[in-house]
Structure formats: structure tokens, C-alpha cells
Amino acid sequence: MTQLNALKNEFANDFPRLASGHYVHFILLRHSQSFPVFQTDGVLNTARTQAGINTTDTISRLVLFKRKQTTPERLAGRELLRSVSLISGDPDAENYCQYNGEKSCKQCPDCIIYGFAIGDSGSERSKVYSDSAFSLSSYEQSHRSFIFNGPSEAGTMSEGGQMRNAINELDHVLPEVTFPTVETLRDPTYEGFLYVLGNLLRTRRYGAQETRTGTMRNYPIAILLTDGEIFSNLYFTQALYDELKGDLNAPIADLKTVANTVVNRLLEDEPIRISHKLMGNDLEQFLDEVSEIYKDEEQLTEMLANLYEQTETYCNHYGAKSSKRSGKSGKK
Length: 332
Description:
By secondary structure, the protein is an alpha+beta fold. Helix content is 36%, strand content 22%. It has one domain.
């Protein structure tokens, strides 16, 4: 039996109306592979925290806010949905869905799984739980300021005898900075689980100026099916910091090995039931099987079509269209 088949029976066939105590946790190491820019007010976002759980010194850490994680993943998913014509970017199309706008369709996988809130037009609570991630290493070790220029079409900084003022200075995250992360999905179907996992695996750019920089890779450490939530991003980061004993710049392969040990230890203290745990070689095999689905157009189209049918059904029974079906009006 494949890892996928072993896991498939763990999921419900439909999205439930109420929380049903079925959680999927994706435990990741987000690893920068260029110079991402994570800022909202002109400077990189930072927070001062205890270095480790046992290491009580405080350090400044870079912060990757929650929306800077989920937004690019949502957009990667929406791009995929458009590629198989399940939603459209054409305002005149019947299946048009505007991202985070008045004209969102409120029934596609993106709207139902990641949620929306559109004033009086309705809302859907996200089934993806995310939180800010913190750099494993300190702010001082994880960033550098660069000055960039904007040359003229001639490739020089002067034009018509005048020097151009197109110079800017910006703080960037350095390559190979790690952000330990737990992203959680509540009460998914099998297809919804594959959709969110695919978005995590396929999203490669995060932060501002993403067409020029911001490449990151998500390294899955574990996938857990549980009946409750587990430790936070910061707790995971601090536990990993303690375990590394100062070797924060270790190769990613070594970080993954240490992270496996830390995750297993932290889970022993969690008051939850774990119905399925994928780590190590089992996880690698599972990810290979998921990758094969995303490489095969027929399997991928079938999976997404099934998912769309599930989210459309949810919308009709419990979501934005349920009041219209029952003749009710006004807010839910």
C-alpha cells in the first residue's frame, strides 16, 4: 500500500460546518535561498524574544508575518485553479473570482479553504491556521543592507548630462536563514489536504519585490494528523535553537535531522492524540507520491475538480449561498 492510500481513509468526504477536531499539521523549515524582503514599514520586521527554551538570553529575531506566508501560497493555488479553468481572471466570465474583493466567488477551493471577509457581502473563516515565524538566528546574523541603483536605458547612472537619483537602500534577509514553522489545516478533505500541501511545496517566492528576489524553499519535517493543535512557531524555534547549541548555520540537511529529533521530543509533551505521523523516509516517500500527482495533468485535474465540487457543495449548504437556497437574507 502506498503512503497516499494509507492516509486517504483518514479524511472526511465533505467539509463539515462545525469544527470536528481533525487537524493536519505541516511542520516545516522555511529556508531563504536569495535575499527576501520582509517589511511593512520600510524596515525588516523584528521581535525580541528569549533565544531558546533553556537559553534565557534575549535576542532580536526577524519575523515573517503570517500573511507574508499564506498570501504567496494562496496565489500559487489560485494560479493553478486558473490553469485548469476552475476559476477565471476575466471579470466577464461565469467562473470569475476576484482575490479578496467584492467579486470573489465564495465557493472555489481558495475562498472556502483560506477564507474571505468582504464587508456586508459575507465571510468564511479560514481553515488554514498560520502564525508569524521567527528566524532561528539573530537579526544581526540574518540581514544586510544593500544599496540599489536604477540605471538609464543606456545602462549608466547619468542621462542627458544629469546624474539620476534612482538610488535606494533596503534591508534584505540573507540566504540560508531558517524560519521553523507549523502551518495547520482544520477539517480538510483528502483533496483539500493535497491542495494546501501542494501550495506549500510549489510556492518558491515570499516577501516584497518577489519578481527579483525572495526565493525560499519549504522543507517538510513532519506531517501530523491529530485531534488538536500543537506547539507554536516560536516554541519550535526556541527548542531547535537549544538543540543546535550555537551551530545555527549548519547545513540544511543537518538542520532537518536535528529538527526531526526536536519535533519528536516536543510531541511527547502535547496532550493530543496523533492518528497518523509522517516523518523521515515515510515522509520522503509520501512527498514523492504527491509530487507525481502534481506532475500528471490527468490526476491533477481530477483532484482539483473533485475539490471544487466539495467546496461548491459546502458553499451551497453552509456558506455564502446557503441563505439564498433557504430564502433567508442578511448576515449569517
